[in-house]
């Protein structure tokens, strides 16, 4: 009887807040809840430990916990590991905070831009869309084979591997390469 009551409460919770459960995605082995902010979700992803460390080192935690909204192209640990050996360790040093901040804010666009919004912009731009980042740089978004990819100012490409991870203060799109500004 006790299990039946618990199951009934669980079903009632889903019925009351269906959008919360329908929009929850798994990233790095953890549920990403649309009721939590970007930082609250990111700290639970085992695939984003380097990004979280970098955000802390750059002093961007408070910003990414604010109301936003923000669109974050979140590189995975694997993406950071593609950088030349020692790059991450050098960037998180206090004397490199300005450079780290520029790189991280190059992954952020003001406003909430869904994958559907990106595809519409790409279509309207006849194959490409330019996104101005919080750092003032430009990312080019394109579509190929049904996937969205981004081209940074140095010509590097990154694929969106998980799109539309909704947050209370924006959206995260997981990317497989760190994007680099000029």
From TrEMBL:
Q: Which residues form the FAS1 domain?
A: 35-179
Sorted alphabetically, which Gene3D superfamilies does this protein's record hold? FAS1 domain
Q: Does the keyword RNA-binding apply?
A: no
Q: Which domain of life is it from?
A: Bacteria
Tell me the first and last residues of the signal peptide: 1-22
- Name of the protein this chain belongs to: Fasciclin domain-containing protein
An example of a Pfam family matching this protein is: Fasciclin
Query: Key word Signal present in the record?
Result: yes
Which PROSITE patterns does its entry note? Answer: FAS1
Question: Any one cellular component term from GO for this entry?
Answer: extracellular space
Keywords, A to Z, come to: Signal
Q: Which SUPFAM superfamilies match?
A: FAS1 domain
């Amino acid at each position: 009887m006790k299990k039946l009551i618990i199951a009934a409460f669980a079903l009632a919770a889903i019925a009351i807040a269906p959008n919360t459960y329908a929009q929850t995605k798994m990233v790095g082995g953890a549920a990403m809840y649309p009721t939590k902010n970007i930082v609250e979700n990111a700290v639970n992803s085992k695939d984003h430990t380097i990004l979280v460390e970098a955000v802390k080192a750059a002093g961007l935690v408070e910003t990414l916990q604010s109301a936003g909204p923000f669109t974050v192209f979140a590189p995975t640990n694997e993406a950071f590991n593609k950088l030349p050996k020692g790059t991450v360790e050098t960037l998180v040093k206090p004397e490199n905070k300005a450079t780290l901040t520029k790189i991280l804010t190059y992954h952020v666009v003001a406003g909430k831009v869904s994958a559907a919004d990106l595809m519409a912009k790409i279509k309207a731009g006849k194959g490409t869309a330019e996104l101005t980042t919080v750092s003032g740089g430009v990312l080019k978004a394109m579509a190929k084979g049904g996937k969205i990819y981004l081209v940074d100012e140095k010509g590097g490409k990154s694929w969106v591997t998980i799109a539309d991870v909704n947050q209370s203060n924006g959206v995260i799109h997981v990317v497989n390469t760190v994007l680099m500004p000029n």
